[in-house]
Amino acid sequence: MHQAVPRSLVEFVSYIAALAVAAGCSSGPSALKMASIDGNAGHQAIQEFDANSDGSLDGAELGKAPGLKAALARVDSNHDGKLTVEEIDARIDQWRALQVALMPVTFTITLDQQRLAGAEVRLVPEKFLGAGIKAAAGTTSNSGAAGLWISDHPDERGVGPGFYRVEITKKEGGKETIPAKFNAQTELGVEMAGDNLDRDFVLNLSSR
């Protein structure tokens, strides 16, 4: 497995341009094969987060799964504010049908209204998806922007479909300067999918 490697924004922009040429579209995804996802992912999600054993996830339960919470509007097909095994699996089936393997993704980070440079931004897949989905990472430039991808390997220069936790870290003198709610105990999440064209994220963090 290739380790996630942070990349500069300039290098990432060059990658996006090359990817667009290969795909024949300015925002086109990779034509590579999509990573394998656990066929029992929906059940695993309920088993992991369903604290009251009612067979669905809502409220505080979704707060423990920020990747799912971020995707609630797209996954909750009956709009009842809850996610079931069937709804989670149906959304994953939509990813498979789209056959998108990798997507270019950028994050712009501010902390207390100031652009945050030199921070690592990591997308960590929710565990219930299985081992096939890999984390991606990037380091913010002076403008606070970072392009994310899995590794230097030509087949891993992007982010695959998935429900992800977003972790933002920056250490100074060996000490973490970003609150735990944005890393070790992150409340941030995103869904990456071929039909979700919002791939330029802006996160405004507060140190309080």
Element layout with pairings:
Blueprint: H1 9-23, H2 41-49, E1 56-57, H3 59-63, H4 66-70, H5 72-75, E2 83-84, H6 85-98, E3 105-111, E4 114-115, E5 120-125, E6 136-139, E7 145-148, E8 162-169, E9 171-172, E10 175-176, E11 189-192, E12 200-205
Parallel strand pairs: 3-12
Antiparallel strand pairs: 1-2, 3-4, 3-7, 5-6, 5-8, 8-11, 9-10
Short overview:
Helices cover 25% and strands 24% of the residues.
* Helicity range: 25-40%
The rounded distance between the terminal residues' Cα atoms is: 37 Å
Q: Which parts are unreliable, with pLDDT below 50 for 5 consecutive residues or more?
A: 1-8, 16-30
Task: Please work out how many helical segments DSSP would assign.
Answer: 6
Q: How many beta strands in the DSSP annotation? A: 12
Largest sheet: 4 strands, mixed
User: Which series of helices and strands comes N to C?
Assistant: HHEHHHEHEEEEEEEEEE
Strand content: 15-25%
Rounded to the nearest angstrom, the radius of gyration is 17 Å
Shape type = globular
Query: Helix/strand-derived class?
Result: alpha+beta
Instruction: Give the overall pLDDT as a whole number.
Output: 88
Describe it.
By secondary structure, the chain is an alpha+beta fold. The chain is 25% helix and 24% strand. It has 6 helices and 12 strands. The protein has helices at 9-23, 41-49, 59-63, 66-70, 72-75, 85-98, and strands at 56-57, 83-84, 105-111, 114-115, 120-125, 136-139, 145-148, 162-169, 171-172, 175-176, 189-192, 200-205. The strands form 4 sheets. Strands 3, 4, 7 and 12 form a 4-stranded mixed sheet that branches. A 4-stranded antiparallel sheet has the order 6-5-8-11. Helix 2 crosses helix 6 (85-98). The chain is globular, with a radius of gyration of 17 Å. The N and C termini lie far apart (37 Å).
